[in-house]
Amino acid sequence: MTNQLFPLRPLQQAAMDQLKSSLRAGKRRIVLQAATGFGKTILGAHMAAGALEKGNRCAFVVPQLSLIDQTFTRFVENGISPGDMGVMQADHPWRRPAAPLQICSVQTVDRRGFPEVKFVIVDEAHIRFKAIDRWVATRPDVLFFGLSATPWSRGMGEIWDDLIVPTTLADLIAAGDLCKFRVFAAAKPDLSGVRTVAGEYHEGELSSLMSGKEIVADVVTTWLEKAAGLPTLLFAVDRAHAATLHEQFNEAGVPSAYVDGETPREERLDVLKRYAAGEFKIICSVATMITGIDVTCRCIVDAAPTKSEIRHVQKIGRGLRNESGKESCLILDHAGNCLRLGLPTEIGRTTLRTGKSDEAEAREGKQKSEPLPRECAGCGNVIPARVRVCDGCGLEAKRQSDVRTVDGELVELGTPAAPKAKATPAIERLRTQGKQAVFSQLWGVATRSGKSEKFVLAKYKAIFGVWPRGLSPLAASPSPELSSWLHAERIKWAKSQDAKKRVATATAEDGKALADAA
Questions:
Q1: In the 8-state DSSP scheme, what is residue 162?
Q2: What is the rounded distance in angstroms from the CA atom of residue 273 to the CA atom of residue 295?
Q3: Taking burial as the number of CB atoms within 10 A of a residue's CB, which of 22, 26, 507, 508 is the most buried?
Q4: Residue 88 parent element (H or E)
Q5: What is the rounded CA–CA span in Å between residue 31 and residue 17?
Q6: How many whole angstroms separate alpha carbon 269 and alpha carbon 70?
Q7: CATH class of segment(s) 172-347+367-383
Q8: What is the number of alpha carbons within 13 Å of residue 91 lying toward its C-beta?
Q9: DSSP string of 465-501, one letter each residue
């Protein structure tokens, strides 16, 4: 059947031209990187239609069952005839093995075997599946195209042979194809005690930390203060954490829903329908809603710390689609991911990763470290590292030096740590808050009271017994424990000054008495 497709936008046509150029250069395993909202599924429809016109059978493979029906609908909306399509997924009602275009779930492909096609499009290609790797490796006669906003998974360069990057997230925002975003770094968790397992934070330890009463309460109160009423997607660490936040929002009078990776299809569709109707204001999710979801969203609550740039960018990408009346998306980063990993507009690659470690890649020059964004001391807005003036409140950041002066002594970052100072109970309580948290609170005190950097460094060393290393000068409001400790320190200092005056006076009087006696 002849498919009447909607025309491609200029950037989509440029991407198609680059894909064709890569094919002419002899590449047969090509990945296209394009941000959420670029229209990768539309581009996939054009690619599939081109294969069908040449008489080639084609497969479009999705990583999640929830994307089967969404892809089918998008293809129909963009001009693919339903008569040309079949679905390869369990006992789906649109199962038609003879159809030239098969929309497949990767799980079904793994169980039933690879369909006989000449052309395969792999959606969300950064999600690694052994079945896909095996398919690519064993069928050199088949063309493979991967689509992803974040094709940065380790080992992709050993399976795929080219990466096309027609545009960047920053360019799409600048062009108005995606909406702007504002990030607020809410109370940041101290992750120093959380172990790393297989390159990611230990889920159980992370869930326990992020489910603490103070953090959960901060998630709810921050949303009520900054985002009340905005359609919101919330990302949690695990089911228990998501369920706790779901309950807390409902108790606060905010209608919320809960979704995880095992939520039945009918229940999930009902949640999305009620959310779209405004019945739910927040969807608290875990292990889902991160990729391939096209729903209204004006606020992202990120309560799941991660070491993965992929997961970080994918989460924020859910909120960047343009909508009527939407000027920007609000990001409430309770995980500290933007400060730790960077803003999504600053993260990206131009080459596919091998299976080597990040350290090995860095040594070979494939990855360079970039300065991280920082939190505005005035309003808490997260701003890019090279931007000096906050677009939220207009505060200009003071330039920080890597060499710091403390009481007349030059201290270079990286100086070997001195033994910890003897800890009083008050200091022990401060240490449990974590080094970055206390460092940020001290910067907040210094900023608001006009004190210098020497104050921050001296107080930090008094608490931890070492100079700060690898910490960001981000201002935060002082905790009650820090305020009490500083107050006690001021009283102690005042008393010491009085004692010094008394000693000086007594010394002077003794000197005068000795002089008179002589």
A1: E
A2: 10
A3: 22
A4: strand 85-88
A5: 14
A6: 11
A7: alpha beta
A8: 0
A9: SS---S------PPPHHHHHHHHHHHHHHHHHHHHHH
What homologous superfamily is domain 10-168 in, according to CATH?
P-loop containing nucleotide triphosphate hydrolases (3.40.50.300)
Element (H, E) at 183: strand 180-185
* pTM attached to this predicted model: 0.71
Q: What is the mean pLDDT of residues 456-467?
A: 87
Tell me how crowded residue 397 is: count the other CB atoms within 10 A of its CB.
17
- 33 has which bridge partners? 148
* Number of Cβ within a 10 Å radius of residue 501: 10
Q: Residue 253: left if φ>0, alpha if ψ -120 to 50, beta else—which one?
A: left
Question: What pLDDT score does 357 carry?
Answer: 64
Percent of the chain with pLDDT over 70: 86
Residue 77's pLDDT is: 87
- Decide if 10-168 and 172-347+367-383 have a common fold: yes
pLDDT in tens, 84-139: 999 999 888 999 999 999 999 999 999 999 999 999 999 999 999 999 999 999 99
A 10 A CB-CB count for 485 gives 21
Nearest to 301 by CA among 436, 185, 172, 169: 185
Residue linked to tokens 């996939």: 44
- Rounded CA gap, 102 and 123, in Å? 13
Cα 308 to chain centroid distance, Å, stands at 8
Q: What does the domain layout of the chain look like in residue ranges?
A: 10-168, 172-347+367-383, 403-495
The strand pairing partners of 411, in sequence order, are 404
Tokens of 40: 């990768």
**Among candidates 12, 11, 356, 18, which has minimal Cα distance to 163?**
18
